[in-house]
Batch of 3 targets.
Target 1
Amino acid sequence: FHPSDYLPGLKKHWAAEGGEASYALLTRCFILVNSTTSRIKTVDTLVNCLRLLIEGDPESLLPAVWLATNSISPTYISLELGLGGSAISKALKKVCMLDNKGLKSLYDKYGDAGDVAFEAKKRQSFTLRKPKPLSIKSVYQLLVKIANSKGIGSVEQKQRFVERLVQDARGAEESRYIVRTLVQHLRIGAVKTTMLIALARAFSLARSPNAEYPIRDIGELSKLKKEDLAPMWAKAEEIVKTCFARRPNYNDIVPALLEIGVCDELLLRCNLALHIPLRPMLGSITRDLGEMLTKLQGRDFSCEYKYDGQRAQVHCDENGKVSIFSRHLEVMTDKYPDLVALVPDIRGDGVSSFILEGEVVAVDQENGDLKTFQTLTNRARKDVDIGTIQVNVCLFAFDLMYLNGEPLLSRPFRERRGLLRSMFQEKHYRFTWVKSIDATSQDAETVQEFLKSAIDIKCEGIMVKVLDNLPNPDLITDDMEGSEALKAELKAPVTPSKRGNKKKTQDEKEEEKKSGARRKALLSTYEPDKRLDSWLKVKKDYDSNVFDTIDLIPVAGWHGQGRKAAWWSPILLACRNPETGSLEVVTKCISGFTDKFYKENKEKYSEDGENTTKSKPSYIEYSGGHPDAWFEPQEVWEMAFADITLSPVYTAAIGLVNEDRGLSMRFPRFLKVRDDKSIEEASTNEFLANLYRKQEQKLKLEGKSGTTE
Ligand code: ATP
């Protein structure tokens, strides 16, 4: 038996020189993942690749995890490759002996830089020097060296490293993935989103002293009885995901896993830490106030203004050092020196260290009036000098996750909010609490008025948050829908510290199971990275037909007509399919753009520039026409629309609500560029399908039929 049996077709190349796991292993894993649309197979492949490393070359595990997730460090540590497209083109030309024309024709034909590298390498008749086989470790180390090359001569130095990688890639497939890694579009989306699951499973299976299942290859893994593995995996996955949500850095979790495996102690090892951002808790969308009030029957909740600004996580340690992080865990400390300077003023006497969260909003310093999100985006992005600040901001605080050395995540929201408001001090138009009222489902009118007042001052709507872990007995009446389940919750509370099934009768267990999902979704604890029903967003008024907005990626354009002849119009937009890593086209848009925007857009995606290609890249799903240029996906646009329709042309979300038809939208309108979102955070096909399901539900309630394009 050879460990490479875990990944069929690998035996010959599993180790590079010196016994280190070869880059060929990872390439093999990527090829297998790319060749299947089955999610089960994707996860199994990844699990096997990781097991192979855990058992055969544990030191290569961490570099492999970074490479497979197409990054080299967490977002809160600034380590960028800093390569332009020309560095890769130059390397390909030199290593594969191509001229400008030859390379351009490959780009026009294949679109994706990795596919171009694949073809170029395939056509290469001889090499400049014999390639030195790449190991996983050596590739990762070279990437780090590229990122760390700074100052005089760094451009040339980076270029040499890039050429070395392209040169040493053995064969066309390795070249494809090396180049995709360098341009940071690996195009195996499923790997990134399933890495935590794969790590949890791999560590439960690997042949360590704790291993329970010494299984050999993918075939055997798939044949195993689900009932045997499911409970073990579910527990392992929850532990690993919880750790990563609290401390999202593979450099912390992978070494800890190698040392102690998946166990409860891992939660202590990877707990909250100051100056390391935790993943924020997220809000679930509701259709309207009615749906929100039904969901939260029996509960006390807080309604808060939903300000339109930028989310900020503020960390402060005992020495007064402050760090500020964005919703996507990027460092914003230098962007907001005014907030940093504010910390000594707002922190009460008993506070030594804390992590709090709020929304940064541009405000008028004279009267505290809120300004638009657009105004906030006009503030410089980085390294703002406190003396030159033009756009003043106020931090509207809404949660407290850590205080004086102690994580508060498992405390009910009422308690966290109480501590926030009692231990910190407001400062006029600079720091205050989000405006809120406490209510129950019986206070529909008051809540509606509160929502209206929020919209009147240009907030986006309200956030509604459950205050306690248990329902309020005074709110449960027998005629209420779901009253039995609510009573059961009171009888057998699931508190975060006492989950488990100790000494319960069968009936009690059954009862608990029934209302278990609802209960978990309504705990008022702070759950990093989770989108639960204990935080609900109500964005628009009752009567509005607009459900929400959607974040799409512009992927292609046609030459405009008449006045718009010099610009791209219409523009084609796509959502993500995280399972396959492809982009699924949803709609064409011609509305909401200013002339200035059109002009800048055309400059960015200029016809012969490096951001466009003539032919459709393989990762884009669209067969409805031939745009004049395909855009390199790189930004996210927030879009409004009238409604979602079943479409015979667009294939987005096909199979999710209808076997043969995809989804599109009527009257799409551009709202804004989401500078705070990367393309990996664009809306998914599942999100689109959900919008459609909600819309159909609403139409049904109103007695109308569904929408087809
Ligand atoms: P999400 O953050 O849920 O993925 P998104 O980025 O599109 O989606 P929204 O749907 O607009 O954001 O809603 C959530 C955001 O609202 C939060 O991330 C936060 O920045 C902002 N926000 C404003 N006011 C509040 C509040 N009172 N409580 C929580 N979040 C608030």
Target 2
Amino acid sequence: VSSTQDHNKPFPECLIDQFQSSNADPSNVVYSPNNASYASLLLAPNLRPESTSPLRPLLIVTPYYEREIQAVIYCCKKLGTQIRVRSGGHDYEGLSYVSGIPFVILDMRNFRSVSINTNDKTAWVEVGTTLGQLYHTIARHSKTLAFTAGVCPTVGVGGHISGGGYGLMSRKHSIAADHIIDAKVMNADDHIVDRRSMGEDLFAIRGGGGTSFGIVLAFKLQLVTIPGTVTVFNVSRTLEQNATNLVHKWQYIADKIDRNLLLRLFLRSITSPIHGNRTIQATFNTLYLGRAHYLLPIMQEKFPELGLLPEDCIEMSWIESVLYFAGLRNEFVDILLSRIPTGVYSPVYFKGKSDYVIQPIPVGGLRGMWRFLHEEDENMAELQLSPYGGALNDYSESETPFAHRAGYIFMIHYAVSWTRPGNSESERRMNWIRRLYGYMAPYVSKNPTAAYFNYGDLDLGTNNEGNTSYAQASVWGLKYFGNNFNRLVRVKTKVDPSNFFRNEQSVPPLYVSA
Ligand code: FDA
């Protein structure tokens, strides 16, 4: 990268100069607002709640080569322009493509090669790969290998795996970040480092999010072994069918049951198809890593109240289960290669929040949750309860930044959606989810009230535009990372003391006052 002084040149000129000086071709890589593809590139797969800023990126850069990323870093540093790195664009608050100060988007969609080694059961995966593409590629190589990560196929590897990565095999194989065995990262000095050169600092991107520490280019992942046949079921019960007691009982078994079994639970308010009244529907959406005839006795012993029948169970391959849980059951497996969200993940405006439960919520508390769900229109609000325990507890709280281990029964994901931004409907729904979150406070973890980093929530607090103190950032940092936040601050202070990589909730470095 050229070292000419271009402080005063606007960003596009600086970048074009940099490209030319390294004989790189900016066409199909650098998009300005005048370019016909700019608007469609800007559009994120997951629409954010409300525009936090009317600013649009100065440029969108979709690199193919590392030297193109180095050119972007160079110009951002010279001109004080902020960089926002986007891999899959599913950030809950749009932090990969929105900023209140002049910025460029580094969109990693062209970094998407996957190479699988079936001998040592590993994969090198570039960050612009989607989970769907990763799962598809693994399945093409082997029927008994898989990877443990999230459910939505269009989520990007870059943000998801560096920030945790919970999925339907997490009780058996824990989260994605626990399976990072190496990585290629471009640091703030635009050098590429790997596990050997990063040493202990690799810790930071194993659940602490890439955002604060550098640009992750690729991960080396340890794959997991799976049976050739898995079993799924999706069984719903309404209040008239004993849903309250079932949900109450579920809390006592969900984290302790056989670790091959992950009984996810969705809660919504619906109009009963039988009685025509508004009721709560509890849907047990489940993956079992094995055949149905092993699953049924487990359910009979631990959760007979659900009344699971053999005909509720569907056997399939793991890759078919990926389609099943994405609501793409009748599609060909190649749909997993698409970057366009479909099925249950069609884009909406939405707000998500998270909580962790360490003591079962009493029946009275559950009834209060039902009242909140009834306040919202059908299909607009949903609670997702994701069980922990099993392999998640095999790691200590401090092994990776992801601190939510032994003692956590389940995570609650609150979500509300709407169709158009910036109107009274969106305001009302944002207000609803915040009130619900407040209502839940007595029933969830405290000191800190834990939250899941991958379900980023700016309500928990934000950085200042200038320096942010440790005390200020620890308000949300301790919620996301527990005491690991302190270690993340130390890594940040070492690898990026000038705070080049930052956003509204990035880990700040410790500032030493002069
Ligand atoms: P995006 O590109 O928006 O990046 C997210 C954050 O990471 C941003 O701050 C960005 O700057 C940073 N970043 C991205 N790439 C980087 C890189 N290469 N280097 C450094 N920083 C980088 N989670 C889960 O655990 N299980 C699940 O099942 C789901 N399901 C799900 C469904 C849907 C519809 C959505 C919208 C989200 C989820 N998630 C999830 C949450 C998801 O894990 C989270 O939003 C991830 O950050 C998304 O990663 P992307 O790369 O897609 O996002």
Target 3
Amino acid sequence: HPSNLQMEECSNLSRANCRAKGGAPGFKVAILGAAGGIGQPLALLMKMNPLVSVLHLYDVVNAPGVTADVSHMDTGAVVRGFLGQPQLESALTGMDLVVIPAGVPRKPGMTRDDLFNINAGIVRTLCEGIAKCCPNAIVNLISNPVNSTVPIAAEVFKKAGTYDPKRLLGVTTLDVVRANTFVAEVLGLDPREVDVPVVGGHAGVTILPLLSQVKPPCPFTAEETEYLTNRIQNGGTEVVEAKAGAGSATLSMAYAAAKFADTCLRGLRGDAGIVECSFVASQVTELPFFASKVRLGRTGAEEIYQLGPLNEYERVGLEKAKKELAGSIQKGVSFIRK
Ligand code: NAI
């Protein structure tokens, strides 16, 4: 006979499942790589998001532990854990939004491209699962190098016949979050009042802050422009070096990922005027993918905005960014087509 405790747990579980199945308002979100440095705080933040009714936490290690922990938070979302490849399909089935921070992070001295060999294969496998189990989900791709993993995901979805460019979004929000913070520091403002568009991609010189378009409008000296551009482009490396071998940005990244996921969910809900920067399939430049401001709606990235007027410094930066981006995109595409 089951003990009282087991019975109680059992009935709690089934009620939770009922609540989730009974169409509690909200969206179903999966995090792939949920036990990692980004995944854990991201799971915490998504569990706090009132737009989330069901939260699936998938990883190849430690998913049950993170799930048990996060599931005790007294917020609305029902949390379920999934461990290892055999449970990937259950983790993905029925999801509206899939956030992917799975993969290895940088150590000091590494570029994001050094991660390609390991992370490319991980992203391919996860995207094959998405194509099979939730082909209509919005995908937020965090795993680096984003400039190559987004093209990899696109090729996987094309092969599977499920590709919709509007639903595949590379997460560059951390670059914007850093830019807002660093610019606010220089201007002596609250970062919440500052809006810096960051375009291009998510690595080194491909990260192109458009300081001439900062809101509130503000002229920067040549020194300020140089300092801010360098600091924004190397913000990730600043954290990698400070952590000295213990990984890359995880907490600020989880914050940025949660902010971007919330933006996507509000778009899915039909809110008007939801605009964020993201690395997407694009016709803004001659490159097939580019980060710029996009408007998010019920079907994903519904509108991609042009870059607007650039100053000379930004035009030079754009040419450099495009050169490096072209190679990273091609590397991703060839990984699947080869
Ligand atoms: P981490 O190593 O702490 O966590 C990664 C997690 O992915 C681990 O729990 C690992 O078990 C899991 N994982 C590995 N293979 C998997 C698979 N096949 N399926 C599911 N899960 C798998 O790394 P961290 O710090 O969380 O970083 C994750 C990724 O995010 C890295 O590629 C990093 O470069 C990237 N990143 C991206 C940023 C961006 O702005 N887009 C910023 C910071 C990091």
